[in-house]
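From the pipeline queue, job 12 of 40. The input is one protein chain; the requested action is below.

Action: predict structure.
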Amino acid sequence: MDETLEIHLQEVRRGTVVLACLQLLRTPGYGYGLLEDLERHGFATDANTLYPLLRRLEKQEYLTSEWNTDEARPRKFYRTSTAGMSLADTLTTEWAALTEAIASLTDTPEQES
């Protein structure tokens, strides 16, 4: 794929991964499982992108976390906080409005010059 195109696609996807994480983590999940869920829903994400994002969202208080040590391998589970749910709802509404606005740009008949 053209390098310039890839840069533009990354810019478009960047915000969608935040929203996808906030939506998916309404049900608690851990990093690797979240990577798989994102992939299954069409949000291919690199672990080197996801883990810093999770830490940032937790620091901003949009996610909460707790360690589960019941299994042989401890896992940090994340959950969308109340503030995160509010943000997700706002972002979803904004995304729908932007989708409609972009559709209106592509649905308009071409004007003659």
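Job complete. DSSP finds four helices and three strands in the chain.
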